[in-house]
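Lecture 7 notes: from sequence to structure.

We start with a single chain of 197 residues. Read the sequence below before looking at the structure.
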Amino acid sequence: MFRKLCGDTTLQNVVIVTNMWGEVSPWVGDAREAELMEDDIFFKPILDRGGQMTRHNNTIASAENIIRLVLDNRPLPLRIQVELVDERKDISETSAGEELDRELNAQIMKHQEEMYVLEEEMEQAMKEKDEETRRELEIETKRMQKEIERLKNDAERFAPEHMDGIGSKLVQPELEEPARRRQKEYPHRGLDYRRGW
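Now the structure, written as tokens:
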């Protein structure tokens, strides 16, 4: 999301600051920092494009060093600024907006799959007359339903004109698939993917 907001051309102005160095031993801190710098899922892509990484040790000297790293940066427009102002895109049409939409839909699908597993476990508990487990699963199912609804509401608030009840139209068929699979297994429940059932 950060890279989508900034755009690759502006990453040369980025300074990543790590802190809480006093909370870990030096060798643990060094190992964690190396992982952050060398792993593609962390900060390596930013550092490869000219970004910098430095430590803040809760000292005035380290704070001044951080400021020095950004003082001579040449201001560049962020990707989201170009998309919103120059290209006159709606926020939901920007690269960052599309990434947010993708992430929200991925979370919704993940939770719907978890709901499916909980349903199966609850039915098994009912068959075994395990009332305590059934109650626990029912509580967890309700919690998961609320989380799915929260994510759907977030997605709809973000870009209502691009939503079709549950996230983007592009992702809609993927969201329907878990529900279709459940309908085959539990035909008496009907097909309502908007509720995650």
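The two ends are 30 Å apart (CA to CA). Keep this in mind for problem set 3.
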